[in-house]
Amino acid sequence: MTPERSADTHPLDRYRDPSDAARVRELAAELAAHFGGELRRMRRANGYSNATWVGDGIAVRIAHTPVDMAREGALVRALPREVGHPEILGEGTTEGHGWIVTKEVRGQNLHEAWPTLTPAEQQQSIRQLWTRAHIAHEASPSLRTYVASHGGFVPATLGDATAAAGRAAVALGLSSAQQSRLHEIIEGCFRTAPFVEQCVNHGDLALMNALWDGEVIALLDFEFAVLGPVELDLCRLVCEARVSEEGQHEDSEAGAAALEIAARHMDPIHGRALIHGAAALDQLRDLDIWLAHDSAEERVEDWRPSRLLTDLLDAEGGYLAPLLR
């Protein structure tokens, strides 16, 4: 069951055990003080898997669950400067909680800035977000030792992916035809992935993982970086640009830019199968997270990942339709 929330519970902690969330905040305060900051003067930043506070010249990011961030720290230090990731001041593990402290980069979270941007600025930001991610892609020969072939929304095995599909089928009451289509999409992705170039993907190429200050100035949070087809990052880019917060498809200059980027960088032979499969795996991961919330506020089929997943199973291919024709 979902723990009871107090009036001062942060929205990002609404589904977490209050005592666990409080302890993470205490640890973050200790880390902030160690690096010359004071947590009460810092603001809570976006992000679910980790808790992040920014201000006083630093950013403190600490994992809610036992996670070692040493691999991510090593990757970030090896990234080309042009990616724009903030400088790491320290990283480690306290009471099982991995953490990273970086210098603060002045700018606004792109997800928060997005509604205030003009259509032209939104298009510009999508192109710049991709440019920074693609710098990491091109540096893969020197970065690949720092990342695994699974993580984030990419399961370790086809069996794990099939199990996630099974959970979705039960939760959403998928028809036999939809279940067959979902398994076909997932299997197609796993089958074709070994035949294309493997690069270092950001793994969570979302608006909330970039900073905006008149342009995209930094790409953040490589915790889900994964070695695999470039379609892993492309599917997230298209979703971010073409799907609203409510899960509705939107035609826009930003969406058109994302589609153009995807069409240009997808593998000419296997790209359709890979981006379709990656998108399905992305929504399966989100659906698992939502199911764990145990929330009765909406019907399961009305949840954003539920709508997006079922759309991906239709004949057109949902928000990926222009790329699958």
UniProtKB/TrEMBL annotation:
It holds the Pfam family APH. It comes from the Bacteria. Residues 45-260 form the Aminoglycoside phosphotransferase domain. InterPro entries: AGP_Transferase, Aminoglycoside_PTrfase, Kinase-like_dom_sf. PANTHER family: AMINOGLYCOSIDE PHOSPHOTRANSFERASE-RELATED-RELATED. This is Phosphotransferase.
